[in-house]
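Before any further analysis, we paired sequence with C-alpha cells, yielding the entry below:
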Amino acid sequence: MDSVVSVIPNQNHKLQTSRHIYMVVIFSKIVGARYFRISGVFGKEDIISPIDTVGHGSHCASIAGGNPVKSASVFGYASGTARGGVPLARIAAYKVCWEKSCDTADILAAYDQAITDGVDILSVSMGSAKVIHQKYFEDINAIGAFHAMKKGILTSKSADNSGPDPYSISNTAPWFVSVAATTIDRRFFTNVQLGNGQIFKGASLNTFDLQNKRYPLIYAGNAPNVHGGFNSSVSRYCLENALDATLVKGKIVLCDDFPYPSIVGLAHGAAGVIYRSNYSLADAKVFALPAVHISPNDGKLVYSYLNSTSNPTATIFKSYEGKDSSDPFIIPFSSRGPNKITPDLLKPDLAAPGVDILAAWPPNSPISGVKGDSRMSNYNIQSGTSMACPHVTAAAAYVKTFHPTWSPAAIKSALMTTGNATPMNSALNKDAEFAYGAGEINPIKAANPGLVYDAAELDYVKFLCGQGYTTRMLQKLTGDNNSSCTQANRGTVWDLNLPSFALSTTRSKYTSVTFSRTVTNVGSATSKYKATISTHPSTLNIQVVPDVLVFSSLGQTKSFTLKIEGSINENVVSSSLVWDDGTFQVRSPIVVYVL
C-alpha cells in the first residue's frame, strides 16, 4: 500500500485511506479520509485533499472520538483534559464542503462511500441553508440516511442553526436522529469600560489584552463609506466594505449587529468592535480583534454616552470564565419544530451540548476563521448544532459497543427514552419538546434502556406510502426499483413505531387519535412494566391500553395503544408516557399542539 499513511487494519470494515503526507500526524485515530468534488471546481483557498483547512470537521470529529489530552485550552481558556465521547473509536472522514459550496452530488457520494466502507455510525454536522423540503425524497440527507439505515447504520444529524423560529428545522426524516443544541454551565464573559467609568458585561472569547488602554469610540452609523456608495443606514450594521477606513482606524467601533465584525475590523484597522444585538449572550464567539457582544439595552447606554461627549473612549478587557446557573437550555440559534413535512412526527429528537465547546482545531487555521488573524491553536471553542451532533454520535457509538446487533431505530430509541427533560429551564425553553425533543442525552442510561421501540425499512416504507407517496416517489428515496406503494402497505404516521408521540390539531376542536406501538424487552428477562401519564390539561384524556406489560424473556415484544382525545386551548400541551418496572423508566414525550 504505497504512500498510504495512518491506516488501521480492520477485520470487518474496508480501509479508508489517505495519500496526503499530513495525515501522518493523526497517528492511529483516523483510519483514513477521502474527499469528493465531482464537479472538479475548486476555489483559490481550497486544498485538494481530505485535510481540514477550516476547522469545522476537526472540531466535530474530536468531539465524537478524540483521544484524551491533558491541559488542552484555547490560550488558557477552558483549560483541562479534553476527550471525545468514545476516545477508543476510529474515525473515517469524508470531505464534501469546499470554498464555493457543499454540492449535493458530493454529499450523496460520501454517504455511499461510508456505507460501502462499513462505518458503524454516521455523524453529519451539516446545515441545509434554511431550505425546508416538502418531501423526504427532496432531502439529500434523508436519502443518504435511509440508505445507511438499510445497512444497519444510524445517522446522527445536526438540527440546523436557523432557530428560534418554529418550523425552522429541516432535518425531519424519522430514520435519523435530529440533534438540537443546549448550553453548558460554563460561560465566557467580556467587559467593556467607557470613558466615564461605566462597565458593561458582554459575551465573547477575547484573548487580546488592550492593557486598559482607552481608544476613541465611534458609532458605525457615523462612518459610512460614502465613496463606496454606502450610507449610515447600512454602515451602522458594520457590513463588509460599508465603513470608511479613515474614520474607524485605531478606534473602537459600535455596531448595531455583528455579521462581519472581525472582517470589517481587520480590513479597516479598527482597534476593536462592540456590537449590540438580540442574539443570545450565552454564545461566546471568537473574533479576529478585540470584540464583545452586548445586549440592546446596554447598547443604548453606550450609544447615549457616545453622543454625550466630544471625545468618547472605551476599552475592551480580556474575557474571563464564569458559571451559568440557568443551564441547560436550548440556544436560540438551534432550529425548532414542528415538523413541516409530517406535522405528527416530533422533531428534533434529542438535545446535546452545543455551546462553547472545546475541541480540536487544525494548527494552520486561525481560531477566528478570519484570514489575517495570526492566532493559531490546536484547540478552539465553537458553538452550533454541529457541535451537538457528534455528542449524540458518540452516545450512539457507546450504546452500539454494548449492543452491536441493535438496529438504528433501537439505538435511537435507547437515546430518546433515557433523555433527560427534567432539568431543562422551562422559562428559557418555552418551545418545550419542539426545542429539545425527548431531552438532553444521558449516554450511561442509554446503554441499558429497559425497553426499545424498534423499526426497520419496511416500517418506514409503510409510513411513506401512507403519506401519499407514489411508487416512483418512494423509489427516489429508497434507491430500490423493487420498492412499491400498494394499498396493502400503507400505514399512518401514528402507527410508525417511534419513541415519541405528536399530534397536531385545531384550537378548541375535539380530536381523537390512537397511536399503535410495540416495545421490545432488553432489560430484565422477567419484568412487569406499568404505564404512567404525566400531568396534562383536564380537557385532554390520554389512555394507554394495556397499561401493564409483563415480559418473561429478553427479546420478547409487547404491543399497546395510546389514545388521545379532547381539545386544547393552548398552543402546545406537553405530557409524557413512562413505562416503569421499578428498575427502568422508559420515557416518551407526548406533544399536542395547534397547527
Summary: Confidence is low (pLDDT under 50) at residues 1-26. The chain has three domains: 30-183+332-443, 186-323, 444-594. The longest helix spans residues 385-402.
